[in-house]
Each structure stands twice: as C-alpha cells, then as structure tokens.
Amino acid sequence: MRKTFLGVAALAACMMMSCKSSKQVATVDLSGEWNIVAVDGQELTATEKPFIGLDMANKSLHGNAGCNSLLGNFELDSIHPGTIRFTQVGATRMMCPDMETETKVLAALNKVAGYDETAEGVVLTDAEGNALLTLEKREAPAVSVNDLKGEWIISQVEGEEVGKTENVPFISLNVDEKTLHGNAGCNIINGGFEQDADQPSSLRFSQVISTMMACPNMETEGKILQALNKVHSFAKGQADGTMVLMDENGAEVMMLQQNVGEPLTK
Length: 266
Prior knowledge:
CATH topology of the largest domain: Lipocalin
Strand content: 35-45%
Mean pLDDT: 86
Keywords: Signal
InterPro entries: DUF306_Meta_HslJ, HslJ-like_sf, Hsp_HslJ-like
Largest sheet: 9 strands, antiparallel
Radius of gyration: 23 Å
Shape: elongated
Protein name: META domain-containing protein
Low-confidence stretches: 1-26
Order of helices and strands: HEEEEEEHEEEEEEEEEHEEE
C-alpha cells in the first residue's frame, strides 16, 4: 500500500513539474521582430544584421537572412508547447559580397523544431534540443512621418533590385498636405496618404493615379504601383539613409534610398 502511495505521489509530482514546465514555455511571446545574434552557437558580428519577424495571428514569417528578404509560414503545436516548425520559407535572390551567414541562417530555419526562453530572448532548437538560432528582441527605431520628407529613390520592389527604367523611380511625400508625388519608372504618379492616429509608423497610400505614357519596359512600373497599394507601415532600413515600406503582415514590399543628388521632381 505504501508503495502505491509513493508511486501516485511521484506521478503527481512529475505531472506538476511537467505542467509548470509547459506553462513556462507557453508564456514565451514570440510575436514581433527578433535579431539573430548567433547561428549554431557562433555569434554574429555587429555588421551582420539578420532578423526574423513572427506574425502570430497569420502564422507568417518575414525578415532578412543577412542579404535577402525572407518570407514564409510557421506552425505551432498547441498540445506540445515549445514546438515550432517553419514552412514554405523563401528568400529573394540578390547577390551580396558575403553570403555565408545567409546560407547558415536559411539552413538553420529548415531544421527548427522547438523554442525556449532565455535570459536575453529566445533560442530556436532542433529536434534534439540543440541551439540553432539565438534571438534577441528587435526594437524598431522610433519613426514619424516627418522622417519621410524629401525624395526617396525606389531601389527594391518585393525584394528585387529595380532594373533599368526610362526615369528614376522615386516617391516624395508632402507631409503638411498628405500628398504623394513621384515617378514609377515611366509615368508620373500622384496620390494621397493617411496614418492611424495612434500609430506613427503606419502609412497607407490612397487614390494613386499615373499618367498614361508607354515605355519599352513597363514591368517594373506595374510592380511599383502594385507595391504602393500594399503598403501599411514603414520603418528605418538597416543601412543609413534607407527606409522600408511594409505590408499588413510586416513583410517588406519596397526599399527606399534617400536622394542626395539633384532633385528628381520636375
């Protein structure tokens, strides 16, 4: 009888410890953006700034692997807290001088099976519990619409470098009048923009219209106009003098480079 009591007590204690452990894992808030500070236990240098962002509502992934933008999805196991798996992870195809970090990040994401909380943030682990990616919360720099004053050259659309066009693609915002002016590569564009009162980084373009000229390459222009319709927010880019326009899921749709040369407005 005593043995039975001890067995039941041990089982109860084990269940209590298990519940406590599961509860601890379940409280980890994965939402938002995370800097990748180490891959496979190797710390990254200050110049390498890969990150991932997790949209918990849509179970979607966005970010940057070190050179190219990331997109994908993820799955969580509600029965086994601390379990996560990334699916349909894709990246844009730009070439950078050093692709080593990016290759390691992409390989690690494909192996992720779980996560755990650390003192500094979160660690993503493989099926055996080995650390793959060490994450720290990424605090976005404070921005206001005033940061968008001036002319901005459109350097990337949907993660791809803008190719040769008839005119330099750019946008310029009149903050006081809340209007947009620019060029999509061939045609002049005009429109308006609005923000949510309590969200200084929100941005949505409205009533964007363009002139009707025909140019040899209209593909880039079409992509730019489509991207402008997707914009929901903006943030400062990783490089100085850049700004990123993002869609409703926080994925990058357009990269802007501040124009420091001759004015493009005609």
